[in-house]
Each structure stands twice: as structure tokens, then as C-alpha cells.
Amino acid sequence: MRLITVFAASGRQGIAQVRQLTAAGFAVRAISRSPDPFYGESFPNTEIMAADLDDPAQVGKAIAGADGVFLNCPLMSSHNNLKRIETVGTLARETNVPRVILHVPLWLPDQPVGQPGYDNGREEALAMLRSHPAATVFGGALFMDNLLTDWAFPGLVNDSVYRYPHNPNLECNWISLDDVARFMVIALDRPDLIGQMFTIGGPERLKPPQVAAILSDVLGKPIRYNPYTPREYGAVLAKSFGLTGDALTQVTRVFEDFYIFNNFSPLKPFAVDMEAVLEKIPLKLETMHEWASRQEWKITDKPRPPAG
């Protein structure tokens, strides 16, 4: 049974990757310092190991003997991500780990676009491709699972309000994190994908009122779309990570600028042309309705990731 190391395994991205890897018959080494990395969920053939991405010795131990690596980098300390990526890629190359798959939770532009988040994500992807000769990078444009976070979920369930910082005409190809993980699992056995990076999205291009209509149908009650301004959203997201003071102000401004760009750029970062991707990597992607229908839309005491 092949072993895949998954970094940041206790985040929503990582949990979906562990889920899809074990479903596909892989053993998993889940890297997390959390005592309950899967929030009560369990997976077969999975060991949990604590490791610090900023410590090369611990990274080396985490990837030792692995047949592949799935790398997710921290969002809230992204200034160190280039170094982390280079460390993982270099050590994986030096220890003959056959495949490394990086997930960057962003659109990956072909050229710099002048928006720091996207330009940094592009540099991270290129760093991975430089660091390991058998790397593949996927950039997920926008995740359905974001609607399960503490800044979105209670409003939907308790107040029947869908809140997001999207202008009402913004078109988005929402993708589930399980589908992101499926792309990554497929790539492990596709040598023709080595050295490439892909932006991936879901099968539908939806505007916010269409998302609200889908959620209304699934939840069985009218859901009203009440958009955040980019600044409001930045503050809500920063607070969801427990930030205060100057850090809250700084992160609020970062996400405000990011969503002003997303709302008005002619480059349309959230509108992903999936035809070419699916021609190269055939995969049946779940729709927003299918994804929403398999979620538990009620407030419970069950633990869950607070944000990303």
C-alpha cells in the first residue's frame, strides 16, 4: 500500500485529501499538531504525526519513506510559504519521493497580474515546480466548503442569509474540496501531468442569486443574499482567525483589496474554463446542489474547523 504524506491535514483542504486518499486505497501520514485533527472523523490506514513546516529536520522525518506528498501551506503565515515549499520540494527530491502535489487555494495566473495574493500564489506554484522534478500544482479558485465556516454557516442556518463579498453579477465556478482532492489523487498516477499547474473550478458558473436559490432548495427555506462589502468580509475573516489590533487591521485590508480585485477585474479569477482541464483530466465534478445536499445544515455541538 503506497504511503502519502499530507501536510496541514487538519484543515478543510487536508481533511478532504485524507478522505479521498484513503478511499482510493492509499495509506496516509497526516501531518498535524492537533490532538483531534479530523474533528471526530476517522480514516483507515492513517497515522498522525506532528511536524513543523519551518523545521527541515521535522519535514524530512514527515516525508521519509513516502511515495508522495500532498502539500497545503498555511494561509495566515503565507510570508514563509515560498521557503516552506522549497524545503519540502528539495527534501522530497533528495530523498527520492516520487511525486509531490501542491495545492494553492487560489487562481493561478499565467503572468503576474498586480494583485499580491494571486502573484504570490503564482510564485509558490513556480517554486514547487522548480524544487521537485515530478511536481504538479493545482490552484482551487473558490470552494463550496467555505460556506461551512464560522463566518458563513451560522448565518445560513439561523438567519436564512447567504453572505459573501461578491457583487451580485460575479460569476464563479465553485468547487468542492473533495473534488480538489480527487484531482490531486489522480495526478499521483499521471506522469503526463508532471511539471504543470492547473487552476480548477466546479462544473457550473453561478452568480450569487443562483447560489442563494440552490441553498434555498436544499435547506427548504428562502435564503436571502446579503453581500458583505470587501472591507466587512476582511474584518469578519480576520476575526475568525482570532486576530486583534494591528494584525486584524492589516489582514482586513489585505482581504478587502483581494475582493475588490475579484469583483471588478476583467480577468475574472473565479470564472474558470474547465473544458480544457476536464479534457486532460476527466472527472465527474459535483454541482453546488449535490454538494449542499450532503451537508448537515444545522447547528450542533460537533467540532468542526472554524475557518479554512
Q: What ranges have pLDDT less than 50 throughout 5 or more consecutive residues?
A: none
At the fold tier of CATH, the topology name of one domain is Rossmann fold
Number of helices: 11
Counted beta strands: 9
Q: What's the overall average pLDDT, rounded?
A: 94
CATH top level assignment of one domain: Alpha Beta
Do you know the CATH architecture of one domain?
A: 3-Layer(aba) Sandwich
Task: Write out key terms for the chains shown.
308 residues, alpha/beta, Rossmann fold, two-stranded parallel ribbon, 13% strand
Describe the 3D structure.
By secondary structure, this protein is an alpha/beta fold. The chain has a domain at 3-143 and 175-201 and 269-286: NAD(P)-binding Rossmann-like Domain (Rossmann fold). 40% of the residues lie in helices and 13% in strands. It contains eleven helices and nine strands. The chain has helices spanning 12-23, 56-63, 81-94, 116-131, 153-159, 177-188, 208-219, 230-240, 245-264, 275-280, 288-293; strands spanning 3-7, 27-31, 46-49, 68-72, 99-104, 135-140, 161-162, 197-200, 224-225. Strands 3-2-1-4-5-6-8 form a seven-stranded parallel β-sheet, with helices on both faces. Strands 7-9 form a two-stranded parallel sheet. β5 (99-104), α4 and β6 form a beta-alpha-beta unit. α1 (12-23) packs across α6, α2 (56-63) crosses α3 (81-94) and α8 packs across α9 (245-264). The mean pLDDT is 94.
